[in-house]
Amino acid sequence: MAGSESRHAETRHALRLRTRHRRAELVRLAVGVTLTILMCVASALVFTGLDDTSDEVSTASAPAVDPMSAGVATVALPAEPGPVPAAIPTAVSIPAIGLNDVVRVIPAGGCPVIDPPTLTDVFWVGCRAKPGTDSDGTTVLTGHAVAGGSGVFNELGDLRNGDAVYITTPRGRLEYRVATQRLYPKNAIASSSQMTTRMPGHLLLVTCYIDDGRFTGDNLVVEAHLVSAIPV
Predict the structure, then answer these.
(1) Alpha-carbon distances of 77 from 65, 71, 80, 175, 218, rounded to whole Å
(2) Which fold has domain 91-231?
(3) Catalytic residues
């Protein structure tokens, strides 16, 4: 009996050991499966994340839009002034001396004598070029200055370099800027280089020169250069 009980005790002990080993194996197996599942999930998340990141990278790699440059690109800028074909002038404005007047014509046959027929009007000299961006020569306007009177160009001598002169024609408006003022003896002005040289874009304003309210034997020539044009 003692021997039989001893064998039964050994058998129960062996069964308990085998059971513990099986449980341990089951636990290890379960842990392994769980880890495998977690690794698969983690891998899926990692790859999904890479897919998302690739989209982000492709977007980020595109040039960033500068709001300032974008604004410039969308703003409609005014067009540059177009050409104003040469035409007979109809009006002149010189703000610096308060002059606004119509322009009349001295026919080409009146040259080379420059003698405006009235005291209070500005005249375009018809034997010289018409004003315009495609003008082929120098434009000449003339008018009288009257000592003690009201000649249209009495204040022409007050102009300074940079003052604006605006000429209107049927084709548009031309802006000139004063560049020089020169004096010529009356008998020499017609043959002066300013009058005989063809200079496109140049404007000459010609009058008698008055010094301290008195006539002199000279003519005053104010030269201005074309700086801008606005077509009609």
Answers:
(1) 20, 11, 9, 21, 48
(2) Sortase; Chain: A; (2.40.260)
(3) 144, 208
